[in-house]
């Protein structure tokens, strides 16, 4: 730090460093330049500029998800803040911790139609856990450290902090307090005992695990073995437990196998760990039978009873609840192997059914010069068997193929965006690559999604971020095309696109680019991409009508 009197911007940077922040992603703007200057004075904070604020937000999102310190993004007032809002809303929907710092006009000219003035707190209040404007320089440590605790505590999520320019420029006299460690709550023993009694007598139990349980796969599987119950994951949360484990019976949601849905439909006891019963996971809230008794453990009390009233509700960390429930259940089932044996026998039969349904269908692309989805699914399946690969799955029409036919066995090796924001995958993978430099980050993106953030391939090259981007290029907004095909009798309007040569585009920006126009070319192309250094685009060219797995139709229009 300089010997000069520190400013509010210096104090923001010092507070971030005190909280263990290492990376800040953003786009320069007038009201945020003081903070960018202060970040540049420190060796313990790295600032990266993007070409769009949305990308900065998604990079911070990916950085947080992949196990880095809290992801931080920044933007200037007005239009910059509006651009950032997509990433903030998506993080809120997916319970991803995020800190968004937004430069604001000086307080002396706010609410007077000054240039790009906006009500930051009012605009973001409904799409984050907390939004606050800091109006006094010496309150920066207090409120900023509270913002960090709020983002990571309880149900994680984004927090937005508005920083007026005069607050950043003013002399600072305060200092950050010590970093506070937050420990998640343990479940109530009485609730655990009641839940164990329900589970001990269940004939067709199922354990539904969401993102809240992803950090404790061993505890989840221990409970499954004690109960003899199958485990299913919520939509796009395939990595909650090893998919090869005999207890795992698939992922719910769009593209789920019929047997996976049936396990929940037939359940008499449902144990839900860290899940929110969202629309896609529950087939629009039709999956859980009214007769089922529900044990719901979630760190956020507002989620208990929001959709389904629980028989037993536990405000708890999902992993702690699974561990406590397994310990309480053990003595209840130890002396009576009849029900437990029957549950395991049923689970084995269901797993055999799932394995049969998960066999990738045979078939090659029938369109010359195009890649078929069967071949691409096989490639992604092989990719996930590599120890060094982490996959970020964007929002695209190829997603159901991954849902059905790709297995995930390594923890923290697969991330999917259930928030619905197109273009998440590529920037999120950039953030993940910075958080986990020991892994090879691969993102699977549609051409529609990628082209929304394609300009930031230059950021990837400039900052030396090693990401392989597989573009599933069908020259269409595929999900919307499929809805028009099924719901509007094939009257296509506004869904077919024109694209450049993505491989050449990558090379023009200083990266690597490979085009794939046949099934046979997929394997060599990916091997070449992973063997090289630096960012790479693999342009997988498909027919514009290439779509869903056989027999699957898109969710009905809402």
Automatic annotation (TrEMBL):
Q: Which GO terms describe its molecular function?
A: acetolactate synthase activity; flavin adenine dinucleotide binding; magnesium ion binding; thiamine pyrophosphate binding
Residue intervals passing through the bilayer: none
Q: What's in the keyword line of the UniProt record? A: Thiamine pyrophosphate
Instruction: Say yes or no: keyword Ribonucleoprotein present.
Output: no
Could you give one GO CC term from the UniProt record?
acetolactate synthase complex
Q: Which domain of life is it from?
A: Bacteria
The Thiamine pyrophosphate enzyme N-terminal TPP-binding domain, residue ranges: 7-120
Pfam families reported in the protein's UniProt record: TPP_enzyme_C, TPP_enzyme_M, TPP_enzyme_N
Q: Which cofactor does it need?
A: thiamine diphosphate
Leader sequence residues: none
Q: What residues does the Thiamine pyrophosphate enzyme TPP-binding domain cover?
A: 399-540
Q: Which residues form the Thiamine pyrophosphate enzyme central domain?
A: 192-325
Family under the similarity heading: Belongs to the TPP enzyme family.
Write down what this protein is called.
Acetolactate synthase-1/2/3 large subunit
């Amino acid at each position: 730090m300089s010997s000069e009197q520190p400013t509010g911007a210096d104090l923001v940077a010092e507070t971030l460093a005190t909280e263990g922040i290492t990376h800040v992603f953003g786009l320069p703007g007038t009201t945020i330049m003081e903070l960018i200057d202060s970040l540049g004075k420190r060796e313990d904070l790295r600032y990266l500029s993007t070409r769009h604020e949305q990308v900065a937000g998604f990079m911070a999102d990916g950085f947080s998800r992949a196990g880095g310190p809290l992801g931080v993004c920044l933007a200037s007032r007005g239009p910059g803040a509006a651009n950032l809002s997509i990433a903030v809303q998506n993080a809120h929907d997916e319970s991803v911790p995020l800190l968004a710092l937004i430069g604001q006009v000086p307080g002396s000219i706010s609410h007077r139609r000054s240039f790009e003035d906006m009500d930051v707190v009012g605009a973001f209040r409904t799409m984050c856990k907390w939004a606050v404007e800091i109006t006094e320089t010496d309150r920066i440590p207090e409120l900023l450290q509270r913002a960090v605790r709020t983002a990571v505590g309880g149900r994680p999520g984004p927090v937005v902090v508005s920083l007026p320019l005069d607050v950043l420029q003013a002399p600072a006299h305060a200092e950050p307090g010590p970093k506070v460690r937050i420990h998640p709550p343990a479940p109530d023993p009485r609730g655990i005992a009641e839940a164990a009694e329900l589970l001990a007598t269940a004939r067709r139990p199922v354990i539904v695990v969401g993102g809240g349980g992803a950090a404790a796969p061993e505890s989840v599987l221990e409970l499954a073995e004690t109960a003899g119950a199958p485990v299913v994951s919520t939509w796009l949360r395939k990595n909650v437990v090893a998919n090869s484990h005999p207890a795992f019976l698939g992922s719910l949601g769009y593209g789920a196998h019929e047997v996976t849905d049936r396990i929940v439909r037939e359940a008499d006891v449902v144990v839900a760990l860290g899940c929110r019963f969202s629309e896609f996971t529950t087939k629009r809230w039709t999956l859980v039978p009214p007769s089922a008794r529900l044990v719901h453990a979630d760190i956020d009390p507002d989620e208990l009873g929001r959709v389904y009233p629980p028989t037993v509700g536990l405000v708890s960390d999902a992993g702690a609840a699974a561990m406590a429930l397994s310990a309480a259940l053990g003595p209840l089932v130890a002396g009576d192997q009849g029900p437990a044996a029957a549950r395991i026998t049923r689970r084995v039969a269901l797993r055999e059914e799932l394995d049969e349904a998960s066999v990738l269908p045979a078939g090659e692309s029938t369109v010359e010069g195009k890649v078929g989805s069967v071949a691409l699914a096989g490639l992604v399946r092989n990719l996930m068997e590599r120890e060094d690969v982490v996959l970020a799955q964007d929002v695209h029409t190829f997603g159901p193929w991954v849902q059905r036919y790709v297995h995930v066995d390594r923890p923290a090796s697969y991330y999917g965006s259930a928030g619905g924001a197109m273009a998440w995958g590529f920037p999120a993978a950039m953030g993940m690559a910075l958080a986990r430099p020991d892994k090879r980050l691969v993102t699977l993106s549609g051409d529609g999604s990628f082209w929304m953030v394609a300009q930031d391939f230059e950021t990837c090259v400039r900052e030396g971020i090693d990401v392989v981007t597989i573009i599933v290029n069908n020259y269409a907004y595929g999900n919307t095309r499929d809805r028009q095909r099924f719901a509007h009798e094939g009257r296509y309007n506004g869904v077919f696109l024109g694209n450049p040569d993505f491989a050449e585009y990558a090379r023009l920006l200083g990266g690597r680019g490979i085009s794939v126009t046949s099934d046979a070319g997929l394997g060599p192309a990916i091997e070449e991409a992973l063997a090289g250094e630096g960012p790479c685009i693999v342009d997988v060219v498909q027919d514009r009508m290439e779509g869903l797995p056989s027999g699957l139709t898109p969710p009905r229009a809402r």
